[in-house]
Structure formats: C-alpha cells, structure tokens
Amino acid sequence: MNFALIFPGQGSQSLGMMAAYGDSPIIRTTFDEASASLGRDLWQLVVEGPAEALNQTVNTQPLMLTSGIAAYRLWQGKSGRIPAMVAGHSLGEYSALVAAGVLKLKDAVPLVEFRAKAMQEAVPAGEGAMAAILGLDVPNIQAACIEAARGQVVQAVNFNSPEQTVIAGHAAAVQRAADACKARGAKRSVMLPVSAPFHCSLMQPAAEKLKGKLATVEFAIPRITVINNVDVAVESDPEKIRDALVRQAAAPVRWVEIMRAMQHAGMSHVFECGPGRVLAGGVKRCAEGLVGGAMADLAGIDAALAIVNA
C-alpha cells in the first residue's frame, strides 16, 4: 500500500507531550541533538515547561520540529517503512524536509528558531490577529475579507478543510472580516490565541529575513517526495525548495489541495507524525476516501504499523 506522513505545525504543542511515546532512547537522543544545535535544553522545556514558555513562538517552532522528527525516527525504528510522500502544515513543512533528507536536524532547529523570531518581529505584538472561520465557503470568506479590509490587510491564509479556513492580518480588520463572515452565513468564527498573523502579506519582512538565512543552510535533493505548502508542488532542486520556503512565510497554506494531491498520487492512508491529531482528523474531510491516522503516541504508531503491514 502507498502511504504518506504529514507533520503538524504550531498549535499542537502541550506540556509533557512526549510522554505518550514512552521512554524510547530515540526520543531522547533526538532531543539531545536538537538541544545541542540550539544551545538550550528543549527536553526540559517540553517536560517541565512552564506552559507559557512552551507556547512562545520562538520555543514552539523548534519544539514541534524536534517532536515530529523524534516520532518519525521512532516510527522508522519500529517499522523500517519509508512513506511514499511527506508534507507538513506550515512549520511542519520543515519537519517533512528533515524526514526527506533535504535538511539536517542540526541545521533545521536553529533555522526554525530564526524563522519564529523573524515572524514575531514582522508585526508588533497586538497589531495582528488570526481567526478560524467555520462553515463558510472560500469565495464568501475572500469576499468578506475584501469588504472588511478598509485599507488594512486581512486575507484567507490557511485552507485547512472545506469547513475551516483561517484568516489573518491587522487585528481590527480580522475582527471586521470575522463579523462579515458570520453575516454571510458562517457557523462560527473563533479568534486564535497566536502571537502574529502568520502567512499573510504582513509577514513579507520575515520572508526577506528568512531568504538571507536560508541561503546559508545546506539543502540536499529529497530522498522522499515532498509536497510543499505554497505551490502544492513537488520539487527536487534544492534552490527551488529554498525559494518555496521563502514564499511560504507570507503566503497561504493550501492544505486541502495537498491532501487531494496525495490522493491523486495514489496514497490510500495519511498518518500524522508527531504530537496532535488535528491534521489526521481533517484528512477525510479534505479528500473523500483518503484514510487518516494519528501517530501521536506509541499506540498510534503501532496502529499505523499494523495497517501498512496488512
């Protein structure tokens, strides 16, 4: 059978999240490697917190990258099975690139810390916002954003499922757009507890900083097919992969299209690799007939192993 792995981004972190994987040496070794490259102890942070520190973007991004790769290495150690395709949601794309051999973990961890700082610095605290719009189609959401902008920025930025699209931009414009979406028939609008308006055009200064940083990092040709966020494309040229990561910072995450591209490529199962189950839960909603699963703990890894070996 053909299966793919997908990696979560920010929002799936929680205090003690790695305890679900038991006391595997692979988990600790991966965290030790990441901590050494960063010069601070990520394991202590994920085990002891505090939660406020865990949820700071500059900490969350290295933690989620490391967690996803630790789970992937545990999967490989138990199964020996390599996925036919990988992808990651926003930050998770970096995890996918490490899994595919494009980036080394020791290079990727400080890279995503730099990305987090650049994104945080692009918009002063409190000036940006994000909101999830539930139960309204994309054309109506985009029309509401245009209507609500009034000279500010508000854009649809995460196409997470047919029922959920996230908007981002200036805080006041996001609130106006959320209200406009409800007036157009949205079931709900939920303001998200984030520190910056990720993936909208306000992140362009972060993209420019990231471009310079990415130029200093070694990229290799992928050993596993990776579908990127920004173009829903498969690239093998390291320079094109770099360019896609630059553009990704200030462009939408086209997740529904990624799931459908995986289905079109012949995938039957897609497993979320790392803490969290949000992506796994949305697989079938994005592509009818595609089966999702979550490797969020040891039981999830074993369940996925049983499926791929059946």
Keywords, separated by commas or semicolons:
310 residues, alpha/beta, 49% helix, 13 helices, five-stranded parallel sheet
Biggest β-sheet: count, sense, barrel?
A: 5 strands, parallel
Helix-strand category: alpha/beta
Averaged pLDDT, please?
Answer: 97
- What percentage of the residues does DSSP assign to strands (E)? 15-25%
Gross morphology is globular
Helix content: 40-55%
Helix/strand order, N-terminal first? EHHHHEHHEHEEHEHEHHEHEH
Termini separation comes to: 9 Å
| Count, helices | 13
Question: Poorly predicted ranges (pLDDT <50, ≥5 residues)?
Answer: none
Task: Write a structural description.
The chain is α/β, with parallel strands linked by helices and 310 residues long. The chain has helices at residues 25-38, 42-48, 51-54, 57-79, 92-99, 105-122, 138-149, 171-183, 204-214, 238-248, 255-264, 278-286, 298-308; strands at residues 3-7, 85-88, 128-134, 154-161, 164-170, 188-191, 225-226, 269-273, 291-295. Strands 7-2-1-8-9 form a 5-stranded parallel sheet, with helices on both faces. A 4-stranded antiparallel sheet has the order 4-5-3-6.
In short:
This protein has 310 residues and is α/β, with parallel strands linked by helices. Helices cover 49% and strands 15% of the residues.
Reconstruct the topology from this structure.
Elements: E1 3-7, H1 25-38, H2 42-48, H3 51-54, H4 57-79, E2 85-88, H5 92-99, H6 105-122, E3 128-134, H7 138-149, E4 154-161, E5 164-170, H8 171-183, E6 188-191, H9 204-214, E7 225-226, H10 238-248, H11 255-264, E8 269-273, H12 278-286, E9 291-295, H13 298-308
Parallel strand pairs: 1-2, 1-8, 2-7, 8-9
Antiparallel strand pairs: 3-5, 3-6, 4-5
Helix pairs in contact: 1-4, 1-6, 4-5, 4-6, 6-9, 7-8, 9-10
